[in-house]
TrEMBL record:
Protein family: Belongs to the class-I aminoacyl-tRNA synthetase family. MetG type 1 subfamily.
GO biological process: methionyl-tRNA aminoacylation
Domain Methionyl-tRNA synthetase anticodon-binding: 421-525
Enzyme Commission designation: 6.1.1.10
Function field: Is required not only for elongation of protein synthesis but also for the initiation of all mRNA translation through initiator tRNA(fMet) aminoacylation.
Catalytic function, reaction form: tRNA(Met) + L-methionine + ATP = L-methionyl-tRNA(Met) + AMP + diphosphate
Residue numbers covered by motif 'KMSKS' region: 347-351
Domain of life the protein comes from: Bacteria
Requisite cofactors: Zn(2+)
Protein's name in the database: Methionine--tRNA ligase
Amino acid sequence: MSHVLAAVAWPYANGPRHIGHVSGFGVPSDVFSRYMRMSGHDVLMVSGTDEHGTPIQVQADAEGVTPRELADRYNRVIVDDLHGLGLSYDLFTRTTTRNHYSVVQELFKGLYDNGYIIAKTTLGAISPSTGRTLPDRYIEGTCPICGYGSARGDQCDNCGNQLDPEQLINPKSRINGEVPEFVETEHFFLDLPAFAGALGKWLDTRSDWRPNVLKFSKNLVEDLQPRAITRDLEWGVPIPLEGWEDRNDKRIYVWFDAVIGYLSASIEWARRSGDPEAWRKWWQDSGALGYYFMGKDNIVFHSVIWPSLLLGYSGEGDKGGRPGSLGALNLPTEVVSSEYLTMEGRKFSSSHKVVIYVRDFLERYDADALRYFIAAAGPESNDTDFTWAEFVRRNNDELVAGWGNLVNRSVSMAAKNFGAIPEAGELTEDDKALLDVVRKGFDTVGELLGKHRQKAAIGEAMRVVAEANKYLSDQAPWKLKDEATKPRMGTILHVALQVISDANTLLTPFLPHSAQKVFELLGGVGVHAPMPSVVEVEDLDGGPSYPVLTGDYTVGAKWESVPLVAGTPLAAPTPIFRKLDVSVIEEELERLAS
Ligand SMILES: [Zn+2]
């Protein structure tokens, strides 16, 4: 039994999230957390909405609202989406809490005291017509490295290099096309080169990461540059140093505050749990494990920058130092990055309407149908395309005709002929072989889930389902209705229902909503797959109230076979999954085109 931190990427609160977002971080982290809890680990799954930064400021300006109002709106939308998907966060909070501000400022001060934050005079872009700071990502120009014509001031999407806006050739404002003016301004930088040694040593110990993530991270460490951690902006966490604290025009850079959210959310969870020190078990115990889930565009923040902040605050970077007042903090165990999901062969794009938002999806389809698609066909280790045709095919052929049909025909046959789970007589070799297949599944599926190979894991679970369907067809219990053969019919159905119960446990991390239903169809009472709830809470330090996602996940199924009790009453089942008419493919493609 270990303490397992599931640190899930923070969705940016400037709009609703689409299914590409949740396939990269949301569903995989929930599948992992559910499995780890079922196998007896003490999991803390935390995240929240990332609410600072220039894009929110710019969008709020455009809508004539405050950044806080904009963030409030999308925080609620995102909380509802993640709730609808059944993502079992212990705490899903936000970066505008006072608790978060104070933890961010504490880390800033700790890093500063240890000499890992340095001041520098740099060039900042302003809009000549308004005199206001022009955010990096709203400046566009030609990439000085690869020559790509539409590089942004913070990054080139063609070659992937991080940029500063003044490096762009022919820079232009993306807001109104004017040429920005560059003026001198003072900022703080994280001294990343001072972590090269410590990061390199640490990465050398991370042999079980996905190879592409490890290789990419090691390459980043080869060429570390100081990185700005403050910005000319009014919206964000104030800089906690004398002479800076009260300045309204300088704020901590959004990426710096957002990665600290993993820690601040853990501390907030502990404070709300009644034991304010409880977070330490996940952050300071030497046996604790920490898994970070994100899409591949965020690897640098989790395998290089966040570890640097943790090392620097703990006094373990190349310049040494002392741990800050919270004490030394654990580095990640693993950075679990997924690849990109595309849609009908194109990149997701809200502006080009190549998109399906989570909310719209859940209005028309079931959460488990999407969870199944993401687990079975998502971007785990390759870029993957979502097509409506493939979604409908998998839903109908695999969920409905495979798993749903197995449950439905077995339960209804047993209910009709016995009214209860029948007694098992003597088992044949075929019976034993099938029971053996599903019992071995706890080891094989579990091992794959522990290694973040969810696609292979759900494939194994569905292989058990296929074997059970074949068993039923071969044994043909519906032919054994007369008095002499009915005991054998009972045995076959008992075996089938036992295999269904166990397969349902194997599928629970992936399909928690339907797993609860299958559990109840088999006569189960109480919670099988615990669900999160949305709770309106007061800010712990006097700020405005807000909704969080939280839950009690100590209840529910364990990762083990539970023998069914003969005689448990069964009722005629209702279908677990909805078959989709193929016409939805055309309808969805038309929505995309319009
Ligand atoms: Zn480039």
